[in-house]
Amino acid sequence: MVLVSVLTATFIGGFDASIMLLAAPTLQSALGASFAQTQLVVVGYTTAYAVALMTGGRLGDVLGRRRVFLWGAAGFTFTSAVCALATTPSVLIAARVAQGLTAALMLPQVLAIIRASLPPAARRRAVGLYGATIGLAWVAGPVCGGALMAWNPFDLGWRALFLVNLPIGVLIIAGAWHRVPESHGPRRRLDVMGAVLLGGALFLLLTVLGGSLRLRPAYVVPALGAVGALLAVFWARERRLEARSLSPIVPPGLFRQRRFARGLAAVLAFYAGNQGFLALLAYYVQDGLERSPLVASLLFCPLSAGFALASAVGGRIPAHTERRTALGGISLMAAGLAIFAGTVCWAPVSLQLAVMPGALGMLGLGQGLVAGPLISLVLTTAPPEDSGAASAVLLTVTQLAHACSVAVIGSVFGAMLGGDPGEGAHSVADHARAATATTLLVLAVCLLAGFLVHRLFSRGRSAGVPEADPSVPTG
Question: Which of 256, 287, 379, 382 is the most buried if burial means most Cβ atoms within 10 Å?
């Protein structure tokens, strides 16, 4: 029952981060939202979650993990209802940000609860299920979201995507209330000022990135300067707390481990194109090719199946072959993106719909082969005493990568299209040109990730880095 409760929470948290990708065009039409507002519906959740993740984990240590988990689950259920009842884009965006903040209370407690509640043998199996649940949630969101919108129960439209959370949230709360035991970490004072500084810097950075192609340089440069100043003050504060043996939000000592810092760069590049590309695909299929959300969700199925298959196989790959496996996965990703770009650029619509499933299947296989070994290697480079903080930092970086990806790639797609998708008379050729250029940008980021993965693995396992705590997720 402990596992059912916390893993269901893990699934629904990741599921809600990706389920809106296919709903964005429909949402834009139903609420009269602009393209920028629909981006904020997607990015607002992941950004709020990423910014508050470190603080949520620290609150669980201080106040009790079961207690904070229940607070987060109750808040997540309530904000899902608010999202479903929203009548304007502004209310929906605000509710999505609040939903992300409650997820940041709920989800960081999962691994700590698993560690505190289960014996070592069961803990290893539970951590494996945890990693599989995260991957399944991210790839299932677009598929299930498109199918639910096509079914359209009780003529609810996009609101059904949020209402489905209500019964699931009640089950999570009931299971945690009756079965999850309470546990605490070191009862240290929470670094509230550090959390405020870090949150402000990240929110401002993502706002600038999302609007960088629409804002004038006179606004972008000062905003980036403010981000740098906030991060500098935050980092100086964290170093002072570490020197006094207090409890910083982000331990600076982690980044003195060079392989850990390089690994985060590789993770950032690897995840940077994923969610942005999915959002691009959703808009291109529905607005450019004028196909239904169901057709778009069916196109996501090969990607989901490829990811699931590669993840299942990747868990059995010996450590000494991980470098070749990861580089092979990057090659599959690059090939899938190149085929997609070429097909969109030159092929007629009927041929595009026939070729896309194969290209997306290659992309999913590549992602599944890279994700596990990369995350495992990054975590094993961290000192054992900092393994929990390293896991939280890694999760924060992946969420920021998703948020930046949607914001930046969406802005590039809109700029290449010559206007907001869903607004104005844009031809299929206009959408194809924008989709091709944006996919080539994703391909360039993918190749950068391949270079970083090659450097990381060539200096990773062979260098005798320490193995991570088995209770820390490794893929």
Answer: 382
The CATH code of domain 1-189 reads 1.20.1250.20
Distance CA 421, CA 336 (A): 24
Which residues lie closer than 8 Å to 429 by C-beta, 6 or more apart?
none
pTM here is 0.74
How far are the Cα atoms of 36, 62, 255, 327, 421 from residue 282, in angstroms, in the given order?
15, 42, 37, 28, 11
The CATH code of the domain at 253-475 is: 1.20.1250.20
Alpha helices for 19-119 (secondary structure H)? 24-31, 35-63, 65-85, 89-106, 109-117
Question: 17: closest CA among 38, 53, 42?
Answer: 42
**pLDDT tens, residue by residue, 82-110:** 999 998 989 999 999 999 999 999 988 88
Residue 88 carries which DSSP code?
A: S
pLDDT per position as a tens digit, 178-205 = 888 888 766 667 778 888 898 888 778 7
Domains of the chain by residue range: 1-189, 191-246, 253-475
